[in-house]
Amino acid sequence: MIWKPHVTVAAVVERDGKFLLVEEETDEGIRYNQPAGHLECGESLLEAAVREAREETRYDFAPRALVGVYNWRHPTKDITYLRFAFAGEVVGFDPERALDEGIIAAHWFSLDEVRALADRHRSPLILQCIEDWLAGRRYPLELLTHYA
């Protein structure tokens, strides 16, 4: 068996002191996550972050900085995730757009509310990414290179 990490992207979006999270159905029950998902064949990391935010929240996301790259191994599954988290802003919204299968709703939560939901986070990366963003971790998008 060949080991390989699952490459994912996440959008860290703060507006008026609240953070955008999605409520989703998972095999572990209802969980909360940033708008996030897997990198698809042929797309750049930035394209993936924009697409996932749109599909999961109906919001158009404009990445402005890289918050960090996170390597996390799920404690009960034989899966390692390599997450690229991007900070950015909402630049549009389409209320008619369908949400991805399994997504219940998008919510805006204060930091205290995000922390209060920690036992229902999909992974510890949700709060870590927000705390890193709050700590000022922002790296230029020019760090990333995509060859089509």
UniProtKB/TrEMBL annotation:
Family in the record: Belongs to the Nudix hydrolase family. NudJ subfamily.
**Cofactors, names only:** Mg(2+)
Output the lineage of the source organism: Bacteria, Pseudomonadati, Pseudomonadota, Betaproteobacteria, Rhodocyclales
Repeat recorded as keyword: no
Question: PANTHER family recorded for this chain?
Answer: NUDIX HYDROLASE 23, PHOSPHATASE NUDJ
Subunit comment for this entry?
Monomer.
Swiss-Prot/TrEMBL keywords: Hydrolase, Magnesium
Instruction: Give the molecular function GO annotations.
Output: nucleoside diphosphate phosphatase activity; ribonucleoside triphosphate phosphatase activity; thiamine diphosphate phosphatase activity
Q: Which organism is it from?
A: Rhodocyclus tenuis
- Ranges where the Nudix hydrolase domain occurs: 4-131
What's the short name of a Pfam family annotated to this entry? NUDIX
> What's the protein name?
Phosphatase NudJ
Q: Which gene encodes it?
A: nudJ
InterPro entries, A to Z: NUDIX_hydrolase-like_dom_sf, NUDIX_hydrolase_dom, NudJ
Tell me which EC number(s) this protein carries: 3.6.1.-
